[in-house]
């Protein structure tokens, strides 16, 4: 789920506007193994236009993954002036994952216009 303070269907505004943003991934299956989570994440990131440039972030993030149970969450929060943090199962684990959030927004709302800002 992607959350903004106000609804928009414009990818450029969703990316450019310096407002709080949140991506919530909630597990709905009874049990998801670490390998299943890693495979799903890596499969989705292959589609990312910035996949090569964020491999270090992806590998670091993947290193924190474990098994998940129904209701567990991974949350990416962008806070203006602070950056993007990651919360895994309620525990804050990292900051500065802006490119992952930017790529998700671009896929959710369509391709960015050529004139759109490069990232959050």
Can you give me a brief rundown of this structure?
By secondary structure, this protein is of the alpha+beta class. Helix content is 34%, strand content 25%. A hairpin with a 2-residue loop joins strand 6 (83-88) and strand 7.
Report on the architecture of this protein:
- The structure is a single chain.
- This protein is an alpha+beta fold and 120 residues long.
- Helix content is 34%, strand content 25%.
- It has helices at 11-16, 34-46, 55-64, 98-109; strands at 2-3, 21-26, 31-32, 68-69, 73-79, 83-88, 91-95.
- The strands form two sheets. Strands 1-2-5-6-7 form a five-stranded antiparallel sheet, covered by helices on one side.
- The longest helix is centred in the middle third of the chain and has 13 residues, at 34-46.
- The protein is globular.
Strand content: 25-35%
Helix and strand pattern: EHEEHHEEEEH
Q: Strands of the largest sheet, in order across it?
A: 1-2-5-6-7
**Overall 3D shape:** globular
Report the structural category. alpha+beta
- The count of DSSP E runs of length 2 or more, i.e. the number of strands, is 7
Question: Helicity, in percent?
Answer: 25-40%
What profile does the largest beta sheet have?
5 strands, antiparallel
Return Rg in Å.
14 Å
Low-confidence stretches: 112-120
Cα(first) to Cα(last) distance is 18 Å
Average pLDDT level: 76
Count of helical regions: 4
Task: Set out the fold topology.
Layout: E1 2-3, H1 11-16, E2 21-26, E3 31-32, H2 34-46, H3 55-64, E4 68-69, E5 73-79, E6 83-88, E7 91-95, H4 98-109
């Amino acid at each position: 789920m992607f959350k903004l303070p106000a609804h928009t269907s414009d990818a450029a505004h969703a990316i450019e506007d310096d407002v709080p943003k949140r991506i919530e991934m909630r597990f709905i299956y009874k049990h998801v193994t670490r390998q299943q989570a890693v495979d799903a994440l890596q499969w989705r990131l292959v589609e990312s236009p910035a996949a090569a440039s964020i491999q270090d972030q992806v590998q670091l993030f993947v290193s924190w993954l474990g098994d998940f149970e129904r209701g567990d969450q991974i949350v990416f929060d962008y806070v203006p002036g602070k950056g993007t943090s990651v919360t895994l199962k309620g525990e804050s684990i990292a900051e500065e994952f802006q490119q992952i959030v930017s790529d998700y927004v671009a896929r959710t709302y369509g391709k960015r216009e050529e004139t759109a800002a490069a990232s959050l």
